[in-house]
Design goal:
Layout (H helix, E strand, L loop, with lengths): L1 E9 L3 H9 L1 H5 L5 E4 L6 E6 L2 E11 L3 E6 L12 E10 L2 E11 L4 H19 L17 H4 L2 H7 L5 H6 L16 E4 L1
Antiparallel strand pairs: 1-7, 1-8, 2-3, 3-4, 4-5, 5-6, 6-7
Length: 191
Amino acid sequence: MAEFRDSIEIGAPPEAVFEYLTTDGGMTAWMGQHADLDPVPGGRFSVNIAGHPVRGEYLRVERPHLVVVSWGFAGSEVLAPGASRVEFRLTAIDGGTRVDLRHWDLPETQVPGHADGWANFLPRLAIAGAGGDAGPESWQPLSDRDERATTHPYRNKQRRGTCPTALRSATPTGSCAGTTAPGRAGTSRAR
């Protein structure tokens, strides 16, 4: 099994960012088209992302600093509902919050697709969490795209460290703050 880690900075306090991990409207402001959340240990974590039903449950909820959920896909034999874990650790920093994401218990074959997904969604969380509009969601999983779509110049430019103006203004430092910085679109490793 493997894990993926990344972090972002958001120009809002942890208390505000926490709502984007625990409320239906907060979640869909940055990830997914529908959410049905019950943010208590053992409570439902259900988010539909581009037609893919993510299913799991809240494992730990420590307002406003920690959310851990189980994560998988309804109907999947490779990553069944609740098969992996995602941790969002929120730390107060000067001017906002640092969110450290850890996604673990991932089959090796799932790491590239999840890394691609988090590279899309974490910058959207930075925008929404700071009170901005992350815009309509158009992301598609790698498995749903053809080769031409995965080499689109804008996506590659994003990965090289260029970030949208809305994201720059959403972070305390006025930069991508580690979201898609050159050479670090997150890290993954086998355990």
